[in-house]
């Protein structure tokens, strides 16, 4: 965790993942919240609804929690008679976020760049957005904060909807994420084009074979 020249705090990818998992589990599994260290590690390393997928050790997550508690992003709670400390996030208080805004931010923290429509589809039980416009309203709130928590990206070539990304990791990290996503799209598109070209070549060979077979067949009657 570090500060930018304008004083905004920048979080590393592990800090972002830990905070997002705490916010997600608060909504999805309220009976098990705050989270133990073990539950938090499992949430960070979850294979579904995560981009990228991570493999963090208990030691690494514990170190991340210490940093986040120092900066007042997380509270550690030791309940009477309990042997383990449990953890809760403070994003709602730190940034004055209602649940709809927190849900949008959490989804972006967990799953990377997304359109408003994708955020609505993936928000699930974090918040019930009635329309894409409701998501866009929450996104605009996060964009208008100072310093901003979310950025609206320019339209990518061949797309109709803008994507959004969280800024907790800083603008440079968001730019790298955007570049990686664009390259990934280009690779995928190139793979599809290559597959189609190969399929066309196979079809041509099949047509040529059928034409030759038909010519041989006709010779029998000439």
TrEMBL record:
<feature type="coiled-coil region">
    <location>
        <begin position="193"/>
        <end position="220"/>
    </location>
</feature>
<dbReference type="InterPro" id="IPR036388">
    <property type="entry name" value="WH-like_DNA-bd_sf"/>
</dbReference>
<comment type="similarity">
    <text>Belongs to the UPF0502 family.</text>
</comment>
<protein>
    <submittedName>
        <fullName>DUF480 domain-containing protein</fullName>
    </submittedName>
</protein>
<dbReference type="Pfam" id="PF04337">
    <property type="entry name" value="DUF480"/>
</dbReference>
<dbReference type="InterPro" id="IPR036390">
    <property type="entry name" value="WH_DNA-bd_sf"/>
</dbReference>
<keyword id="KW-0175">Coiled coil</keyword>
<dbReference type="InterPro" id="IPR007432">
    <property type="entry name" value="DUF480"/>
</dbReference>
